[in-house]
Amino acid sequence: MAIPALMAEGGSVGSVPEFLSLLIIILVSAKLLGELAERIGQPAVLGELIAGVLVGGSVLGLVDPSLESIHLLAEVGVIILLFEIGLETDLRQLLRVGGASAVVALVGVVVPFVLGYAVAVALGIAELPAIVIGAALTATSVGITARVLSDLGRLQDPESQIVLGAAVIDDVIGLVILGVVSGLVAGEAVSFGSVAEVTARAFGFIIGALLVGRLMVPPLFGLLARVGRPETVGAMALVLAFLLAYIADASGSALIIGAFTAGLLLQPTPQAAEIEEGVYRLGQFFVPIFFVLVGASVDVRTFAQTEVAVIGVALVVVAVIGKFVAGYAPVWFKGKKSVIGVGMVPRGEVGLIFAQLGLASGVLTVGQFSALTLMVIATTFMAPPLLKLLFPPRVEGKPPAPRGIAGLTTEA
Question: Which of 371, 373, 364, 375 is nearest to 317 (CA)?
């Protein structure tokens, strides 16, 4: 029996067989194109994104991104993705990378945001969509950059340490910005006071959760490890991620900030490696659904529209410039600043989360969303070959990869 096209009306799947056939389409296309992308030296997330474009309504018409059941699975995928990134983020290592990473991160957030916002406004886009567009340009994809540098055997080089430290820092900043933007798209007025309030809530949640969680989580999971089975520890870790995501949302922050914070709390525990392995396996099912659904939301026909093409190209240019100049921010560093700049360019999963937030909330039009997706695809495509050109692989082989950085794979 042929698999039906699942462009159901009313935002729901009609039956269990139809739902299963939709999952087959999503997962098979994601894995096939993800594998193909990796075989040509690109991150798997790009293959999953392109798979979504192909099976979406503007090409094959097999997947409707508005289906509520699949949308919920995709949301779970985002939570698992950010939980996994939190598990891979060592706060102590983050504090040790030095001032250079902090300067690169701050410049790499401020400059792209300002340039993106300014370009959007100059092209006639309203204030709130322009804020979302600027925010989507802020966060570097630490997973993509780490994977490329690991493959090159360059993770221990000073340039790599600065890039990876800065990428983690601006991911954290990006998550806080996401919390701010989430509040704004929910209807809060765009003013200094409202932005300060949402920022305070985002930081307050993270700080409060870390302070309380550091006292409660390690002993609790130590007890679970002693009296429970390994599967119980992994299940309770997932419960913690869902719980903090729920509390973050209820407190006016973002779901993914809660999930990320749960990962930060569990990262230093002795059970972290075991939890991480289980989360990674679970993510192989849920996370690709998110990226395929994002790709399916892109209407490739809008690329033929002059307005979308102009916005997309303009965003690609400022996205590259904004991150590249950040590589030159630590003027005292004597290494290859161009490597740092290029390493900060790929936007990957966090940029897509911003774009999807804007589309789902109705703040961004389909055309603006497509332009942002074009920016994410372009910046993610160009970074790996440029890094390989500027940073040739070590002939003597790869040095050991430090835990908490190289473990971020592009399949997440």
Answer: 375
